[in-house]
Amino acid sequence: MSLAHVLITSLLEKPSSGIELARRFDHSMGYFWSATHQQIYRELKNMLQQGWISTQSPPDLKQKIYQVEAKGRAALATWMLEHSAPAQLREDLMVRLRAEAQLNSQALIPELQKHLIEHQKRLRTYQAIFAKDFAAASPDNRQQYIQKMILQLGLDLEQDWVNWLEQLIQGLQQYQDNKDAD
Asked: Whole-prediction pTM value?
C-alpha cells in the first residue's frame, strides 16, 4: 500500500484542503498508517501530476480543495484487487523481551509500564471515537459499518495489548519478588 492510496481513500470520503487532509489523517487514518505532513503534501503534488486528483479554489477560501479524479478512482480500484499478505508483527519490544529472558535483569519492567500507559491511552482514545461516531450509527449504512469494524479491530488490539502487558508485568514482578525472597 502506498500513501497515495490512503490519501485517495480519504479524499473520496471528503474533498479537503491539504491542511484539513493532514489534520483528518492525524485523527483517523494516522492510527494505522503514519505519514508526516510533509510526506502528505509531497504525495498530493505527485498525485496532481499523475492526474489522480485535481484542485479547485472556491472564491471564499484561500486554500485549494483536493478532489479525486477518474484516474485516481481507477488506480484505487486496481490496487484494491491486488493481494496483500497479512501484516507481520515487527515489534522491537518482543526482541528486547527475548534478550531480557537471557539476561535475567528485570530491566524492562519500567519500559513495559510505559508501553502499558500508551496502550491504555490509545484504548481510551478509540473508545471516545467509538462513542462519538458510532454509538448511534445506522446498522443500514455500509460505509459506517466498515469504518466501525476497523475501529473495533483497533479497540480489540489495544485491549489485548493492555491485558497482555498487565499480565506480563505482574508475572515479571512476581519472579522478582520470589528471587528477592530467596
From this structure: 0.75
